[in-house]
Predict the structure.
Amino acid sequence: NNVVVEDSVKAAAQEVQGGKTLSDALRDKPYIDPMVYQMAAIGEQSGKMDEMLGKAAQVFEDELDEKIATLSAMIEPVMMILLAIVAGLLVGGVLFPIYALVNSIG
């Protein structure tokens, strides 16, 4: 949940203001992925914190894109079936009264 992660990040920010390194502050948080504080530690050691955290963000974005693509691929056949049922109901709703009218005349 974003609220829980937000609280963890705010607590980590307070710890950083208190003198802890970002990686150590994030390590204690249960809802922060281990890759994040590992990449933060690498960024602290190499002096390229923004680059390392950017790579971590890119990994999460790629994972999310993959999950969304999988979910939409799973939903697509169901949507096609539902649309076919709705189209069938519409066609039936138009044709059945016409057939009933023709049968009542003849």
Q: What stands out?
A: The chain has four helices and no strands. Helices lie at 2-17, 22-27, 34-46, 49-105. The mean pLDDT is 92. Residues 42 and 48 are 8 Å apart (CA to CA).
